[in-house]
Structure prediction request, 502 residues.
Amino acid sequence: MPPTIPDELIQLITDNLAQETREGRAEDLLSCSLAHNALRHAAQKHLFETVQLWTSPPSLQDPPPYQAALDARALLFVQLLKKNPALGLHVRRLDYQVNQFPRNDEDRLDDLLQAIEMMPNVTDLTLGYRRIVVPWTEGRRMPMAPIPRELVFQNRKGTSGEDPHSRWKRAVVALIQRTQLKTLRLAKIRMLPLYSLSPSIRNLYLQDSSFSLGRPLEPFENRCVKLESLNCEDDEAVNFVDDYLKAEEVGLPLPVTLDLSGLRRLGITALCGYHERWGRVLRRVGHLCELEVLVHRLGSLITEEAKPEIALEGFSTNPVSLIHPASLATISHLTLKIYTDHRYSYSIVDPYTRACDDSLLLLGALEILEIEMTLDGGECALHTDNLTGIGHGWERLPVILVTHGSFPRLRKVSVPVQTTMEDHSEHALEGLDAEENEERKGEVEARLAYAQKLVEEMADLVFPQTEFRSVVNARPGLKLSLVTEVTMGYETWRCRANIVSK
Prediction:
């Protein structure tokens, strides 16, 4: 009789194979599950821990190849669960995305809803909408209605008087109400009933998503959701949170209480010219540990017609000035993500480099400071003249970092500045004669050479040696990362600023 392997040793073997950063993880776990019965259960626990279900309805004719592959994989998993329901017990993270509301009479809906019920231990759920635009070809009927950019979760009456998507919606609400759920991520799902939130949820991530504040028609007991992490990635999510806080302040009846007193991580989008909206949640939350602020500022908005509606001072509101006083003493990780364009003068960017003013000195517990700036140029090439203001804008940052007694716990400062430009090198060359072909190739080679040169010039202009040398001298143990990137199409050039100490 062959010797048995202790369960502890089997667990150690499969846990080592299941390390997420290891290359060939899935293949090795699959081989392990097939090697011996004693290894199968331990390997399957890791193989099915994370499941992706990206589906489209059977009515979608001739889906793109990538979507057809996703549908086939989802269908295969659903059929696998029907044959072996025990596999669903291993699923902890579920990524479920659709490209339209499934209809009540849709083929395979029963199997799909049954598969979701077979995964009762999900603690991390992603629910999203993916917009698929199928290219028109001869013989294909054009869609009768425009393809929506998001799913609006509200009752719609069909010809029979019933919501034709009610079965799927009820199943989704039941999924979100599960008591095991800890993390919920919504992507392009709007007006989901707030009362569907499970009180066990601690981490909520909203991408172009929102909840409706209405109460259900049937009797409902108010519940409390104690959030530890909240991320609002765009204006839709920010507006929802702001509307909720305003309703709470005036005493309106709400179906769910969002308890933010225990919030430790907050990600917020700073709306252009509407700092009173995103600032409300900052002023409300005390004892934050991590704060991430995303800023969008496009020069195309700064027109004479837009100035009265979107005042420039609204763009340059320093987020630190809006933080709750208690959080100033607890924030250890601050990230500022700045997305703008370089089609205009550097004054478009300058207000955000000014976010690094003396207000940062109020963050006495700061350990990590990250400032990520993206300059989107589209078809326009970035010129070095546009960069002189960025380097000037950082002038206060080195001064603040070397101020005596500032940031006693600071261990990392990272400032990547990236510019993106469209790449026309893959444009079709068909129909061009030999001379035109050579001319096009010359243009492409010139743009590539310009990008390689630009990334090095950016490092010198964006991060002046004289300003940042003092930081290197005063804080020798600080991990200082000053990086410039130029992305053209699928190629990226990087250059790390070499700040030499003296």
User: Anything to note?
Assistant: The first strand starts at residue 50 and ends at 55.
